[in-house]
Amino acid sequence: MIMSKRKLNVFLPLLFAVVLALGMYLGHKMPGANTGAQTLLFTRPSRAPLQEVMDLLKIKYVDTLQVAELQEEAIQGLLGHLDPHSIYIPPSSLQTVNEDLEGHFSGIGVEFNIIGDTVNVVSVVPGGPSETAGVQTGDKIIKVNDSLVAGNSITGDKIRKMLRGPKNSKVTVSMLRQKKLLPIQIVRGDIPLYSVDASYMITPEIGYIKISKFAGTTYQEFMDAMRKLTRGGMTKLVIDLRQNPGGYLDAATRIADELLDENKLIVYTQGKSYPRSDYRCEKPGLFEKGGLTILTDEGSASASEILAGAVQEWDRGTIIGRRTFGKGLVQEQFDLSNGGALRLTVARYYLNSGRSIQKSYADGRDAYDDDIMNRYNHGEFVSQDSIHQKDTIAYKTAAGRVVYGGGGITPDIFIPFDTARFTNVLTAMYSRSTFSNFAYQYYNSHKSEFTQYKDATAFTNQYQLPNEVYNDFKTFAIKDSIRNVAAINAHDEKEIKTRLKALLARQLWGYAGFYEALNKDDEMMRKAVDVLQKK
After folding, report:
1. What InterPro entries does its record include (predicted)?
2. Do 289 and 380 sit in the same domain of this protein?
């Protein structure tokens, strides 16, 4: 043992010398040795070039930079090379985006429009904070706390930010009512954002439900509507998904479970780093056997297409309308440290037959965004023969019917778009909100005329827009800088009267009244009723 220590002591100086010489040699050969840069024996992990550039800009660039804006632009640039539905949500927009899908927000509970720099209360949420405080339809908002909003070039976004706030916080809103200024203190509360806009009986046996989006509260709203209609004698159903942009997958699959029986596959999702996940029917549904039609158009997307596609795959009902948008991608939302979020595509939807809903985005985002307009231009909106199927593979439903994927859901019964609805004069009226502004003003000065109608159904069946009201509207439109009012044709006149009647119903019964009146002479609705009555 003593001899071993002595030998070690003899060789230690030699060992240190060898290690020192080797270190000097390696140091000379390592990158940066001859450039004056500092070099470490153990190098730190390299940073990504993007982060290096951002750091250099912050430290070395000659001028002061808005680094947050640069980072947002860099993120947008990265996402621009991905699919069209992977998006960055900046911190300023995240709350609004989340509220829309969660189905509620904190505010005072009024709906408003802006006419001539004046904020007008169009409706008051029943049971909400404003109704409790005494706000009435027709009131004009002049001030919010100490901030003047009337005649101050106010915008919808600005007034929304002023009226919304934390739950139980207080805001004083000065209202002009019959030439009197009334300061009203309102305690903010939770305001529901409904996604089932309307539900009513079309005939003694046929019910109707309009779903505008698939949010966190949609399934419960749908079930409440179904129970109400079932008590009213409903045995057949129309579900209206027109212009429904989608939303939560869970809401769509839970509603599908109410319509499909047994253990049927509704949809499955799968991605490169996202294992297959099946969504099947799990329980007895509330409406598995009655006659069913679903209305779709080019604005029906994502979760809407899943619901319509699942019904079509299993031959459960009839899809009526026009080809849907074609969005079959799954997004997952990731919160970022700056308060924003990244909504990233992680998988695709596939229906029971294996077909994908998603249309191609191989030609870039601009081409993708122009797809709907291109469909219109090549005649698809008016002729079923103009529909270009994207997939070369034909899929089959449970009953053996041929269906196609790769570009939305093609309806079983095609209903053309009424191009005559958008003449130049009507388009100008829509874009300037001439219809809604006139209906609001007329209703508030003629409320007593509408007390004879007990509900939206009675109004829809009995009310006819008087010619004097129609003439008043034309005079209003001329004052609103609408050109060629004198050249309105018979088709335009019918469209104007239908729209004004629906907007007056909205003033009385909200969106439920609006859709019931609007659907009275709707061609797609007539076809749905015809199909269900034949069954």
Report:
1. ClpP/crotonase-like_dom_sf, PDZ, PDZ_6, PDZ_sf, Peptidase_S41A, Tail-specific_protease
2. yes
Count of alpha carbons within 13 Å of 345, Cβ hemisphere only? 17
215 and 178 part of one domain: no
Q: Are 248 and 369 contained in the same domain?
A: yes
Please indicate whether residue 27 or residue 139 has the higher confidence score (pLDDT): 139
How far is Cα 415 from Cα 319, in angstroms, rounded to an integer? 11
Q: Are residues 313 and 398 in contact, defined by beta-carbon separation less than 8 angstroms?
A: yes
Asked whether residue 504 is domain-assigned, the answer is: yes
How many other β-carbons are positioned within 10 Å of the β-carbon of residue 319? Answer: 24
Please check whether residues 124 and 271 belong to one and the same domain: no
83 CB contacts (<8 Å, ≥6 apart)? 329, 345, 361
Cα–Cα distance for residue pair 411/293, rounded to 1 Å: 11
For residue 386, the 8-state DSSP code is: G
CATH code, domain carrying 145? 2.30.42.10
Q: Are residues 119 and 254 in the same domain?
A: no
The tokens describing 123, both together, are: 């409706």
Mean pLDDT of 64-80: 86
- 347 has which bridge partners? 330
> How far is Cα 44 from Cα 1, in angstroms, rounded to an integer?
42
- What is the 8-class DSSP label of residue 173? E
Q: For residue 151, what are the domain limits?
A: 104-192
Is the domain of 181 the same as that of 295?
no
Question: Given pLDDT bands bounded at 50, 70 and 90, which one contains residue 495?
Answer: very high
pTM for the predicted model, two decimal places: 0.86
- Residue finishing a domain among 417, 447, 477: 417
Summary mean pLDDT of the chain: 89
Tell me: pLDDT of 523 over 50: yes
Whether the Cβ atoms of residue 163 and residue 107 lie closer than 8 Å to each other: yes
- Specify the number of domains making up the chain: 4
Using one digit for the tens of pLDDT, what is the confidence trace for 74-119?
888 989 999 999 999 999 889 888 888 888 899 999 999 898 889 9
